[in-house]
UniProtKB/TrEMBL annotation:
It comes from the Bacteria. It comes from Planococcus lenghuensis. The lineage of its organism: Bacteria, Bacillati, Bacillota, Bacilli, Bacillales. It holds the Pfam family HEPPP_synt_1. One of its GO terms (biological process) is menaquinone biosynthetic process. This is Heptaprenyl diphosphate synthase.
Length: 257
């Protein structure tokens, strides 16, 4: 599969998932479901790399994307409050996407997968909630929490369908992308619960920024190594490093930092 075919597959899945959760009124007043291409890439990674991928696996992957959209919708409201109509509708959107998720699961009739995904959802929600509490955090604990928040559902999907060898790669890459996003937010003068927690854990926002820069570099090196160790097909590895991970942008952020 060449890079164009990989891109087309991700786009096709994105469109199909958007169709599953389409709701005209909610999309009129909110940003709509957040079906991130980067997460779709890692969700589809075993398939893109030539692993066995049944129709059940395909359906389950869509389910994971739908519930991730629900979790992201709720997180957006937690960070911004729900004081106006758009934010209140975003709460409803999260509930709506969750409802679609359970409908898809019911059609799958896969009780074991339902249980494992439900457990992962609870753990992700617990980690997200903890970021809003004034608790003492160590940087190593923050790393674990971020890895679970960003890749917990994909990890569960991998483990259920025996794709566990891809787990470390997905967790490292998605954590890297989250840290890069936080650096961009910080550079623009913004703040987030994660940045505030990091500032407390490291002593100041300046040291938090330095910690993030170091993590971006370290994780990128790890991802490159893991991509070769897997091994990924040549075109897939190129797509990951050149299209999924915007490292040139990261290098610029690091130089400017």
């Amino acid at each position: 599969m060449n890079e164009q075919q990989i891109d087309e597959k991700i786009t096709l899945e994105q469109v199909r998932i958007m169709e599953l959760v389409h709701h005209r009124t909610l999309e009129k007043f909110t940003a709509g479901p957040a079906v991130k291409r980067t997460r779709l890439f890692f969700l589809l990674l075993p398939y893109l790399n030539g692993e066995y991928w049944s129709s059940e696996t395909e359906a389950s992957s869509k389910t994971v994307s739908i519930v991730q959209a629900a979790l992201d919708a709720h997180e957006h409201v937690e960070e911004n409050g729900a004081a106006n109509l758009e934010q209140q509708l975003t709460v409803l959107a999260g509930d709506y996407y969750s409802g679609v998720y359970y409908q898809v699961l019911a059609r799958l009739k896969n009780i074991d997968l339902v249980r494992q995904l439900s457990s992962a959802i609870a753990e992700i929600s617990e980690n997200k909630a903890s970021l809003y509490e004034s608790l003492p955090w160590r940087p190593t604990d923050i790393e674990i929490a971020v890895g679970e928040i960003e890749a917990g559902l994909i990890r569960t999907f991998y483990e259920f369908y025996s794709y566990g060898s891809y787990e470390r790669l997905a967790i490292r890459a998605l954590s890297l992308l989250r840290y890069e996003s936080e650096l961009e937010l910080l550079k623009s003068g913004g703040r987030s619960p994660l940045l505030n927690v990091l500032a407390k854990a490291t002593g100041s926002m300046l040291t938090a920024e330095q910690w993030l820069h170091e993590k971006v570099n370290t994780l990128y090196s790890e991802v490159v190594h893991l991509a070769k160790q897997q091994p990924l097909q040549k075109e897939l590895e190129s797509f990951l490093l050149n299209r999924v991970l915007p490292h040139r942008k990261m290098e610029q952020l690091i130089r400017e930092g």
